[in-house]
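Sharing a chain and its predicted structure for anyone who wants a worked example. Both blocks are below, sequence first, tokens second.
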Amino acid sequence: MPAAKKTAARSPTRQVERVQTGVRLEKRLLKVLKGLAESLDLSLGDLLEGVALHALENKPPFSAATLKKVADLKRIYELDLTAADSHQLRE
């Protein structure tokens, strides 16, 4: 008999209103985020919403496996910025 599929408990779908926004991001950071979204089969907007919602509850948004993907993407796109650089970036 095949093993039963393990499914994560999910919240019911919530209806929301989304708006289009023009957000400027550091070029390499955007590449990493787009690559991560693609690897997780998410839109960039869905990824950013998830990260923001987790951050607002002081919860880590990524699993260990996802953090490995992030590290790989940071290496590929030569992203050397860290949280310590936040609010210190200038064009």
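Comments welcome. The chain has a mean pLDDT of 91.
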